[in-house]
Input
Amino acid sequence: MSKLKHTKSLALFKKAKRIIPGGVNSPVRAFRAVGGNPIFIQSAKGPKIYDVDGNGYIDYVLSWGPMILGHSHPAVIKALQKACERGTSYGAPTPLETELAVMIRKIYPSMEIVRMVNSGTEATMSAIRVARGFTKRDKVIKFEGCYHGHADGLLVKAGSGAATFGVPDSPGVPRDYAKNTITLPYNDLAAFKRIVEKDGKHIACVIIEPVVGNSGCILPRPGYLEGIRKLTTKHDIVLIFDEVMTGFRVSFGGAQKAFRIKPDMTCLGKVIGGGLPVGAYGGRSDIMKMVSPEGPVYQAGTLSGNPLAMTAGIETLRILSRPETYKQLMAKSAALEEALKDAARRAGIKTKFYRAGTMFCTYFTDKEIYNFTDAKSSDTAVFAKYFSGMLDRGVNLAPSQFEAGFMSLAHSGADINKTARAAYETFKEIK
Ligand code: KE4
Output
């Protein structure tokens, strides 16, 4: 039973459920994977969020990644206040969109041409459409445990015929949409090679989370991404790195910089909007020339390149671009890793902790996690107890085993020590 008072959150949840599906505007927020009722947030500042009952939490969700500077960063807020006074949306080009696109290309040189959209889903959905238009092929390869947003063709799981026909992973997705999506196990280069050698000429693109943040935090095996790059080049298949989450998280230049792989297209989101709705896709200019109005592949958006989202993104990337920023971010992330591993050791509980730069995850298992099947074999019931024990001790983790945690520039050594103490007490309690 929670030790903290959640009276107001509970009342708000009851009210929300009468008008919003499940009381939330995105499923994971409903705490279904961990039990209990969601906390409703009133405000956030630096490393902390505050709920409507006045409880404060050290936050490692950070809006699922975007708040890498910490919440309500003064420079971002100031820039947004000034931008608001100039109007909130024009539906016409602004210098801000070009400014952010230029900043992105400087950090992600593989993105020679960039299109702004309003979410990660729009970015991946659009990138796939462009890849299909460019190659004149229909099939797409994705990987189990990777999430690329909720476009119909991506809510697909492996069909019974192993990796031939995809089947819908949600009601409402027509079988016809699913059949062009092939779903393979992550980190299995042999399975990938078999499919592209057999069917490569029908495959438009491969979309992959280079580090899988939607199954917790699963790292590519040595040589895996290189193998995918080699095979997609050989078969003229467009390689799309979905870096909506790994972008600016695995490193400043994302996973493509960290693993030194040049994808043909990249999808970004989250951090580039500094907490406002945003997404972007881009890549090789010969591919991106296909995008309307320059090319025939249609894609559009009322609020694409919105001046407020651009302003928050520009300010965020400006601060991230400072030399000492990533040194600090990585040091904080490594310190948290060490502290949590030590807490588990001292408490005598079996965990596996994985980290890629500033994103991380704790699994309750003694086996290594290489793919979604491994992740699912970890003890999710114990994870749920871990989540609740940490929340009660003022630490906000992602309410699902299959989500990553994130570090921010605002988390202090004291926050990390408090987190480690909370983890030690919780581990002792649940082991
Ligand atoms: P959005 O449409 O939610 O902006 O982005 C979709 C998306 C695409 N690609 C990757 C790698 C992603 O992680 C996401 C969204 N991430 C989830 C967290 N696992 C957002 C949280 C939520 O769905 O509420």
The CA atoms of residues 116 and 280 lie 4 Å apart. The pocket of KE4 is lined by residues 26, 28, 64, 119-121, 124, 147-149, 209, 213-214, 242, 244-245, 269, 279, 403 (CB under 6 Å).
